[in-house]
Amino acid sequence: MTPPKIHFLNVKQGDCFLLERTSGRLTVIDICCGNVSQVARLIEAMEVVKSEKPRGNYAMCKKSTNPIDYIKERGFSSIWRFILTHPDMDHMDGIKNLFNNITVSNFWDCGIRREKPDFEEGGPYLEEDWDFYEKLINNEVDGVNIISPRAGDKGKYWNEDEEGGNGDFLHIVSPSDELVKMANDNGDINDASYVIVYWSSAGPIIFSGDSNDKTWKYILDNHREMVKDAAVLFAPHHGRKSDRNYSFLDIVNPRISFFGCAKSDYLAYSAWQYRNLLYFTNNQCGNVHIYPTGDDVEVFIENYNYANDYTNGNTYQKDEYWFLCKI
């Protein structure tokens, strides 16, 4: 059986996570850089430079990963569930390629409905991804089961199974029906983003999507125990400031957090520093592998330079990645 393992992929200013469980059911949460070519990645990789000290500019955000290539290279031929936290293009960039190249059994639709974005002026995203997404939510893609679970729901196989067990230990703490209605009425879709908790042996591992203040008020009012004293937090909105109130960190109190790619000026470092919370970024680490092992979490990363600097030369390899820390 496959031991639990979380892959936090380096996909520029977007999100993509893979969750392997002992069940063999692969979960993918969001996708970005699914249209990035191998040639483009090699050009970007040539630009990566080594900084002289930890927490400096390790420039790994220039070495983006195409999740479809990544999944195939690791021998996966199917995805049990694809969870789209919310329909922003940086969370569904390459969704058409993903479904066309890898069998996806179940698609989670958060229930948000919004106008089609403007693709007329160009930009990094493809209109065909949006068109494919609309086919998905309208149940027009053959062979894909569409579900829309809400906060607190139970079901096979995310947190139930035939033996009365907990399935893949995935729990939904947002959105509620009320948050979805509010988002559809006022257009602030981040407040109805999926927030998923994987209940690992080491404690809660939280996938936050782009959740905002109303989301976290709802979560703390209704699912506080599910997120309290988390083992791992993937920071909301990639860790951006975005006028968020990060007071929820006082309850979540993560042992370790991860930020995505963005300019340092845009990231909410101070909210973590003020609380003396440990965090790392894709720009330092590149791709990240996280292993819940008993009560601890082991972290291995793609970037040897940062791992070597952070551990003072005591890093070592696992699954071709480099040891960063154990918490």
Commentary on this structure:
The chain has one domain (5-326): Metallo-beta-lactamase, Chain A, CATH 3.60.15.10. It is 24% helix and 22% strand. The chain contains eleven helices and 16 strands. Strands 6-5-4-3-2-1-13-14-16-15 form a ten-stranded mixed beta sheet, sandwiched between helices. The chain has a six-stranded mixed beta sheet with strand order 7-8-9-10-11-12. Mean pLDDT is 92; it is low at 48-54.
Order of helices and strands: EEEHHEHEHEEHEEHHEHEHEHEEHEE
How are the strands of the largest sheet arranged? 6-5-4-3-2-1-13-14-16-15
Looking at the structure, what is the overall shape?
globular
- Count the domains: 1
Structural class: alpha/beta
Number of helices: 11
Mean pLDDT: 92
User: What level of helicity do the residues show?
Assistant: 10-25%
Q: Let me know the number of strands.
A: 16
CATH topology type? Metallo-beta-lactamase, Chain A
| Unreliable stretches | 48-54
Task: Write a concise keyword list for the protein shown above.
327 residues, alpha/beta, Metallo-beta-lactamase, Chain A, ten-stranded mixed sheet, six-stranded mixed sheet, 11 helices, 24% helix, globular
